[in-house]
Amino acid sequence: MTGRTVLVTGGSRGIGLACARRFARQGDRVAVTYHSSPPPDGVFGVRCDVTVASDVDAAFSAVEAELGPVEVLVANAGITKDGLLLRMGEEQFTSVVDANLTGAYRTCKRATQGMLRARKGRIILMSSVVAMLGSAGQANYAASKAGLIGLARSLARELGSRSITVNVVAPGPVETDMTAALGADRLAELTAAVPLGRQASPEEIAAVVAFLASDDAGYITGAVIPVDGGLGMGH
User: Are strands 72-75 and 121-126 parallel, antiparallel or unpaired?
Assistant: First the structure.
């Protein structure tokens, strides 16, 4: 399974960029979407706001015209707007759910058009350990990431007869700009809770994503794969 068309949403940096580069090294044709910051040179990028259905459709059309129908979708685009519940405004909650969960619905729906015609495809949704563990101050983020599990498992049942697999990756703390912004004290607290005693690299997450998109994972669907150093054990 080389030379496929792969689309990674939110792929201009961090985990998404690591996934894009991993697929490119395998010989796949790779595109990423971005919202504000374009990807580095050498990565084919399309601007897309996953909260806008017309943006999603236009992005897929651009990728299809340039690289062919999308055969692997990595739904990675997401945002955080943390805050304690009593201080969290409704927009703060709904905007995170719209970007992280409803955005994944939009991209999955558009991707499956071509996959159903081809009778094959791989969809990987990027969740988080907090989807199952919970996190104070992240009710919106945790709810959106937990929703991805229900979305993935429902789609796995709908699409399985067409040889389309749908799986979830649930990372723990990862060395990205998002975690770096938490500050040294919070990072030390997070790392101390991880049995392996460190954060993951983006490349370690990308390796699992690449596996789920491979022939070797052809009989895996509806699964939630934790890549969290043991942080979420028992969930």
Answer: parallel
As a whole number of Å, the end-to-end CA separation of the chain is: 33
User: Do residues 82 and 144 touch, judged by C-beta distance below 8 A?
Assistant: no
Task: Answer yes or no: is 215 within a domain.
Answer: yes
- Mean pLDDT (the chain, rounded): 95
pLDDT of 1: 45
Measured N-to-C along each axis, helices 103-118 and 53-67 cross at an angle, to the nearest 10 degrees, of 40
Q: 34, 105, 141, 219: which is the annotated catalytic residue?
A: 141
Q: What is the CATH number of the domain that holds 10?
A: 3.40.50.720
Residue 48 within any structural domain of the chain: yes
CB-CB contact of 198 with 229 (8 Å): yes
Domain count, the chain: 1
The per-residue pLDDT for 2 is 59
Tell me which residue range forms the domain holding 96: 5-174+205-225
Taking only the tens place, the pLDDT of each residue in 74-105 is: 999 999 999 999 999 999 999 999 999 999 99
- Mean pLDDT throughout 164-189? 86
Query: Mapped to the 3 state alphabet, what secondary structure does 123-156 carry?
Result: EEEECCCHHHHCCCCCHHHHHHHHHHHHHHHHHH
Judge whether 193 lies within some domain.
Answer: no
Classify residue 87 as exposed, middle or buried by CB count within 10 Å of its CB (0-12, 13-18, 19+): exposed
Confidence (pTM): 0.95
Hunting for tokens 């707007």 — which residue is that? 81
Q: Does 50 reside within a domain?
A: yes
For residue 34, indicate whether it is catalytic. Answer: no
Distances in Å between the Cα of 58 and the Cα atoms of 12, 77, 199 are 18, 16, 36
